[in-house]
Amino acid sequence: GAIRGFLVEKETPGFKATLIEGKLSLRAALTAELEFNDCPLPPDAMLPKSAGLRSPLSCLNHARYGIAWGVLGAAMACYDEARQYAMQRVQFDRPIGSFQLVQAKLARMLIEITKGQLLAYRLAQLKDSGAARHYHISMAKLNNVEIALDAARNARDILGGVGILDSHQCFRHMCNLESVKTYEGTHDIHLLVLGQQITGTPAFQ
């Protein structure tokens, strides 16, 4: 009755992959629905070192760690685009970057990105020393996705109407980050992971 991992070749009877169309996020990546209906598998299809939920959960931890770093790149790209646009776009005979509200948005973006970088760097130190735990990774994934989404939205706001055009990148990052907020554990799940660690009581049983 143990949970085991298997490699399933795409030609296996009973296996079906259906391409998911009409995505508004992660459009560059192919996404499919996978069906496994009584797939016959040979003994050598079983992954010999995979048993129980430890393997998939370990994969999740590695993926979430990578996300905590990757979304910072999206946030930095949005910040750079917004800053450059604010310095070039002229309204009322002045670059919009000279206005208080625009400067406040850029300053807040930079502060949050820097905090996210420090969090990811500290997590990397813990991971290298073998001290990183799943709740550390949950904190970094949750926080950095959140600040990246905020950066994308603020960048789109600074760019105004042109921010929705595909000649700029902030709206694309914003749409993609909505998916990243959900996969590898939703925001709410990571909050509950942290809540259990804080209180010692799981809220999801």
Model description:
This protein has 205 residues and is mainly alpha-helical. The protein has two domains: 4-51, Butyryl-CoA Dehydrogenase, subunit A, domain 2 (Beta Barrel), CATH 2.40.110.10; 54-199, Up-down Bundle (Butyryl-CoA Dehydrogenase, subunit A, domain 3), CATH 1.20.140. It contains five helices and six strands. The protein has a two-stranded antiparallel ribbon. Strands 2-3 form a two-stranded antiparallel sheet. Strands 5-6 form a two-stranded antiparallel sheet. Helix 2 packs antiparallel against helix 3 and helix 3 (134-159) runs antiparallel to helix 4. The two termini are 22 Å apart. The relative contact order is 0.12.
In short:
This protein has 205 residues and is mainly alpha-helical.
Write the SSE topology:
Blueprint: E1 4-6, E2 15-19, E3 32-36, E4 46-51, H1 54-88, E5 90-91, E6 94-95, H2 100-128, H3 134-159, H4 170-182, H5 187-199
Antiparallel strand pairs: 1-4, 2-3, 5-6
Helix pairs in contact: 1-2, 1-3, 1-4, 2-3, 3-4, 3-5
Q: Notable features of this structure?
A:
about 200 residues; mainly alpha; Butyryl-CoA Dehydrogenase, subunit A, domain 2; Butyryl-CoA Dehydrogenase, subunit A, domain 3; 2 domains; two-stranded antiparallel sheet; two-stranded antiparallel ribbon; 6 strands; about 55% helix
